[in-house]
Write a structure and sequence with these properties.
about 110 residues, mainly alpha, 4 helices
Length: about 110
């Protein structure tokens, strides 16, 4: 299996499609991911990116997306990034409120 050989350091490159590579692979041996196709799901997009972003990662990570101008792939990537920005904004807002002191309403 290619992923096992890669995990064990017996292969220098791991090729995986985004949907299959987004789960079950610890990619901390890598610091560069090249995407030749995109998932339309924000969950798969985030999971795929998270494969090389782990607590044990020692390198700055680089994600390269191979797209062609004025195609669906560019629209999908723009949409995924936009949805990711919205989700991060919501989570930041929720986290900030979680640390606000509890205030009782005045009777």
């Amino acid at each position: 299996d290619q992923s096992i050989a890669w995990q064990e350091g017996k292969a220098d490159v791991l090729v995986a499609q985004n949907q299959s590579g987004s789960v079950g692979i610890n990619g901390t041996r890598a610091h560069t991911a090249i995407y030749y196709s995109l998932a339309t799901s924000l969950v798969l997009y985030d999971q795929g990116r998270a494969r090389i972003h782990r607590a044990t990662q020692k390198h700055k990570c680089l994600h390269i997306y191979l797209t062609i101008r004025r195609t669906m792939d560019q629209k999908i990537l723009k949409g995924l990034r936009s949805r990711q920005d919205v989700m991060e904004s919501i989570m930041s807002s929720v986290a900030a409120r979680a640390f606000e002191p509890y205030q009782k309403e005045k009777a």
